[in-house]
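[Meeting: bench + compute handoff]

Bench side (C.D.) handed over the final construct sequence. Compute side (W.E.) agreed to return the predicted structure before the next meeting so the bench team could plan truncations. Sequence as handed over:
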Amino acid sequence: MLYYFLYPLREYFTVFNVFKYITFRAAFASITAFLIIVIFAPPIIKMLHALKIGENVREKECPNLYDKHKIKQGTPTMGGILILIGVFASTLLWAELNNPYLLLALFVTLYMGVLGFVDDYKKLMYKKVKSGSRGLNKRTKLFFQALIGLVVALFLYWNPDNTRVLEFPFFKNIAIDLGIFYIPFVILVITACSNAVNITDGLDGLAIGAIIMTAVTYTGMSYVTGHVKFAEYLGIYYLPEAAELTIFCASIIGAGLGFLWYNSYPASIFMGDTGALALGGAMGTVAVFIKKEMLLFLVGGIFVVEAMSVLLQIISFRTTGRRIFKIAPLHHHFEMCGWPESKVTVRFWIIAIILVLLSFSTLKLR
């Protein structure tokens, strides 16, 4: 929005010429999102406390884990609303809004956020009646996630500028043309990414820290994908519209850092499904837009391992009656092994940073 108001004034004030630079707008988008979260978080946390919108720690599911997490009982949740405000306000202020890829990314983020909000709300209402935490039916949630994934898939499938070829990190000469199977693939990426982030959101600062790392990677990837000279030099897919996705990803970085300010151990607020589903959906959408879908397995390795730990635990228990881990997801397994919560989180962050570095190396190591 500021771009449309201030950039035309460059003819009178040359200082406004900076608005044509993606790097300038991305930097300030990140700063803006950070400040919005830091400033508005305290009153929103107080409001959530007053409304008794707090975390419900369930004892019957795992008594040993309950002993470690019972201090979190009543901590305000649904903090994803705050993240959405920061991301949307910052992106709308600093991005060019005539970009269909950007607008669809924002829509997917909002859609997933609303879906997560409904899930959080149902859990809250159920808590008032019983001690459990029953939200949306799993099939219902999966259906609506797949539905928005289908929208993105059809948008890309019918877009003449889009390629349906799947490329792999580190392997320059390996590419698969998915054809019609590109549609279910996109649905799978967005749905899986959204759920994987949600599964990871179980310790203070863990999921939002990993999301920040992922957003840093896709900020850089969006920038080079949208820059004709960089794309040509690196031999990667060139998408002019990807440049504005840099602003979007930078806003997520800023909002994530701002939220981490209050979500770090001991957390003053949790993002809930409202934030986890929205951020996961956002990253999955950006990944398919800029043709870096397979890179998600690397840069989002924390989310992949967390989701796989749950899947393997279920398969093992149903087929053999035995559990692979003491408890799933994996971060809780390490807690049960005696690791302090903060140590689990920081070690997972360290791994995430290494994965970011490896992800950027794929630009040339192919």
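W.E. noted at the follow-up: The radius of gyration is 21 Å. C.D. will use this when planning the next construct.
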